Structure formats: C-alpha cells, structure tokens
Amino acid sequence: MNKDTLRQTLRAKRNALTPSQQAFASKQVATHLAQSSDYQQATHIAFYLACDGELDLTPALKQALADNKACYLPVIAPNRQLRFRRYNEGCSLETNRYGIAEPSADNPEIQPNRLDLVLAPLVAFDSNFNRLGMGGGFYDSTFRRAPQPLGKRDRRAAVLFGVGHSIQKVAQLEREAWDVTLDGVLTETGLDLR
Q1: Residues annotated within a binding site for ATP
Q2: Residues annotated in a binding site
Q3: What is the mean pLDDT of the chain?
Q4: Which residues bind substrate (predicted)?
Q5: pLDDT tens digits for 50-85?
Q6: What is the pTM of this model?
Q7: What CA–CA distance (Å, rounded) separates 144 from 94?
C-alpha cells in the first residue's frame, strides 16, 4: 500500500472511533505519559492540538500545566520547519493555513533543540519506531539528527514520542532517508521506548 493510500485508510480508521473511545484514549495517554521518567525529568514539553481524529492531548496538557511544566505548541514556519511557542490556558491563538490553532507571535518562543520532550501526532507507526505523518515533513525537518541504533538515544536532542491510537500501528513502514525515528510511541495501551 502506498503512503497516500495508507494515510487515507488510517485517517478514516481513527476518525471512526467514537467520542467515548477518543476520550478514553486521551485519559489513558495522559496517565502513561505522567508515569514516564522522560516526562518527569522534562521541564520544556511540546504538545499539539488534535485535529482530524488525532489523539487529543488535552488531558495530558492540563496535567503538565498543573505540574508546572513549560508547555509549547508547534507553529508552522518557512522551509518546512516548526517553531514552538509557549502555551498557557487562555493564551492567544491564531489559525494557521491548515486550519490548526497555534499560539500567536506575542507568546514566548523556544528553540526546538531546547525542548526536553516533543509529542508528535502521527498517522501510522511500526515496531521499528518509524512514523508516518500527514506528509508535510515538518517534524522530520525540524528534528533531523543522526540515526540512532535501536535502544540508544541522542541525549543532545529532544526526546521525540509519536502519539496515536493503537489501531494506527502497521506491520512495517517504508523508511525514507529524511525520516526521523521516534524515541518512543505513546498510545492508550502504554508507552513503548526504543
């Protein structure tokens, strides 16, 4: 199955989840995230605002704010890059060209390499920690780094967790040279680490 067909199939699958299934998954992910040492040790964490059936991180984001974590949301920048601006409940948001809310320019910004933990949405993932996104390449170009052997992490860079529903797991994804491998995958069933 080519990537476009796979994206369509899995987006339809996640959009078919009922509101109660979505809410349950969100709460479970918040619990699994809070129990992880990467979260507990992190000061600066990047979240995302869910759209198109993506797993909703609102419970996890609220918990992080309550835990006094510095929380950020992605902002689309030129050259397929992401910037990250500080998020607090009630901060001003603007809608980007994809219809996704992002913090406005009056919110403080952090360089991606200063983030401790990044939670990235995904369309599909496999057991080799490969991630298939929406196809824009924003997370790949922003967090490109030298490939790490399985079981090893580049501690000079942000820890990158892909977030999705367990139904989005596939047998194997074709890896491109520019694809960034995840450090972990977070679903309602738990957190799997490299």
Answers
A1: 3-7, 131-139
A2: 3-7, 49, 54, 131-139
A3: 90
A4: 49, 54
A5: 998 999 999 999 999 999 999 999 999 877 789 999
A6: 0.91
A7: 27
- What percent of the chain is helix, strand and coil (3-state, nearest 5)? 30, 25, 45
In this prediction, residue 153 has a pLDDT band, given cuts at 50, 70 and 90, of: low
**DSSP state string for 106-143:** TS-EE-GGG-SEEEEE-SEE-TT--EE-SSS-HHHHHS
Report the binding-site residues for substrate: 49, 54
Residues near 31 by Cβ (< 8 Å), separated by ≥ 6?
Answer: none
Q: Which residue has the tokens 């993506």?
A: 54
- Residue that is written with structure tokens 């419970």 in the block: 59
End-to-end CA distance of the chain: 26
Please identify which residue in the block is written with the tokens 């090893």: 152
Q: Taking the CA atoms of the chain, what radius of gyration do you get in angstroms?
A: 16
